[in-house]
Design brief:
- The protein is an all-alpha fold.
- It folds into 2 domains: about 5-45; about 55-185.
- It contains 9 helices and no strands.
- The protein starts with a helix and ends with a helix.
């Protein structure tokens, strides 16, 4: 009995195929690691923004000044009603984006509504959705036809954004406390 008959020989074609497979697997593995490391950095950059939550909370006066500035610009006829509402909605979105670490500045109403299921701060998510929903008719509706757009003043819209601004962090802390209590039970 010959030993070469028991184990078949590996010819050059088989060796080339094995080497190519090993190289392909190595390349795929490297691409996955590169993608995941890039994705992690991108997420970390969003979460670790230049304005973390405690900084934004202590800087609420700047946000209030921005809101007051928009109302003043509107009252001085420097911007239109639609522009004022759009700027107020933008402030609300930016503020919540900074607090949560999630960029929601371009989210649709449907996407904003879905945040309630994803965030611990359900009250805050509801207030954000309600604020943006209330500002939508002012921003996009025909004021001649839409009653809500006719009746909503810039001052009222600013008040809604201020309520969101003032109540967000306290709601966020309350939801964290509830989460801690629930985890202890």
């Amino acid at each position: 009995m010959n030993l070469s008959n028991i184990q078949p020989h590996l010819d050059n074609h088989m060796l080339y195929a094995i080497v190519i497979c090993i190289i392909a697997i190595t390349i795929c593995f490297s691409i996955c690691i590169f993608y995941l490391s890039f994705r992690t950095k991108k997420i970390a950059k969003l979460v670790d923004s230049s304005s973390p939550s405690h900084k934004v909370d202590s800087n609420k006066s700047q946000w209030r000044k921005s809101i007051d500035s928009i109302v003043d610009d509107y009252n001085n006829n420097l911007i239109s009603h639609d522009e004022a509402c759009a700027k107020l909605a933008s402030i609300a979105r930016k503020y919540v984006s900074l607090l949560t670490g999630k960029d929601i500045t371009t989210f649709t109403l449907k996407e904003l509504s879905s945040l309630r299921n994803k965030w611990n701060n359900k009250i805050g998510a509801d207030k954000l959705r309600q604020t943006i929903t209330a500002l939508y008719p002012c921003e996009f509706a025909d004021r001649n036809i839409n009653n809500q757009a006719q009746q909503t003043s810039v001052e009222q819209a600013a008040h809604w954004v201020l309520i969101l601004l003032e109540s967000w962090s306290s709601n966020d802390r309350n939801s964290k406390r509830k989460s801690k209590r629930n985890s202890k039970i």
